[in-house]
Amino acid sequence: MKRVYVKEEWCLGCHLCEYNCAFANSNLEAMTSLKGKKIFPRIHVEGGERITFAVSCRHCLDPLCVKSCIAGAISRREGVVVIDRQKCVGCLTCVLVCPYGALAPGEDGAMQKCELCLGSGRGEPACVAGCPNGAIVYEERSESE
Description:
By secondary structure, the chain is an alpha+beta fold. The protein contains four helices and eight strands; from the N terminus they run E-H-E-E-H-E-E-H-E-E-H-E.
């Protein structure tokens, strides 16, 4: 299955992946509508002076977030871990158990995470398409990588 991977050595820490993600998952018609607003991306740039990298869901084969969700809002469909935001009660248990820090509350308090922009019809996630340095890739890799 294709997943999002980050080449940390190429990440500039520009946060454009976050803006592209927030825009792709909004109902806005122009990215400029995000100007001056708090954004709620499903990918997050972390790091400091020496290294920066984007953190997103790894779509684990045996996801702890699915097992821990008390509301049954998180499931795995065709290899992609997805959240039914209507079922989410915002308990944050999934945030506590995710070893990658991939989940965060959205604007309405329901959890959100990368779902690979599968419903967008783009063919690749918005963060990948918008990364100016090619630090984020969407590709198939062996399970050992």
